[in-house]
Amino acid sequence: MSTQNLIETHNLTKVYSKVRCVDSVNMQVPSGTIYGFLGPNGAGKSTTLKMILGLAKPTAGNITLFGTPVNEKNRIKLLKQTGSLIESPSYYGHLTGEENLQIIQTLKGCSEKDIDKVLKIVRLEEARKKLVNHYSLGMKQRLGLAAALLGFPKLLILDEPTNGLDPAGIQEMRELICSLPSEYGITVVVSSHLLSEIDQMADHVGIIRKGELVYQNTLESLHSHAKQQIALRVSHTAIALDLLRQDGITATQEDDYLLLPLVDDNYVANLCRQLVSQNISLYRVEKREKSLEDIFLSLTGKESSL
To answer: How many CB atoms neighbour CB 170 within 10 A?
Structure first.
């Protein structure tokens, strides 16, 4: 698999009414991946994606697609290799799903056979002759995805594709997205404000907060920041702290608990025996782990970072 970045942005910036909605973003989307673009509502996700797609003009910075810097002369040519679903899908409600796709297929200049293929991928074959006004919200989202897939682009950009869907619809959309790189060789950028969604789809992640890209790496690397600790609650904290210091263990106090680094089971057992031998009551011993949600909140809702 090529390690080329299909998207690179360099100090990409967008200012609206003196507000920096996107601030010097350097995004790198590797080929063949699902890149989760994660952040709270209003963080700058949609604005960044619109600039990549040429729907909004950057105030500063530049964009490289497929290894080629984007300019006014080559923008259309490069964007022909992309598909997108930004915000809610557009459609003609008085036409059938198939007729909607025929219009887009004509505009894209791709093969009519693609219509059958994309309808099969998004599981709308049986609803192809149905008026789109009679589609459910989930079916409309899948039709929008089918339209984006026409021509089988190298790159697919999806902005909050599960918004408004029920749990079954979310699961179905997630499965569709996850199948695209392996089955069709399509690199996917999917934005969301829901950590759980990105965690189940992406292998690379970029986290944006107040217009700034505060984290970018593999999802595995993000998980590795989940910090494991042992928490102790005892009757005499000062004595327990002294015992830990004698063993060279650095512990911190939080509320009624002592927090120490993750140590092996034998050490914990021996420590408990020592505490009990000194008539210290041991109320609780537990293993704690900083969750992915905690990490996300630290990056997006607090001033601390990884």
So the answer is: 20
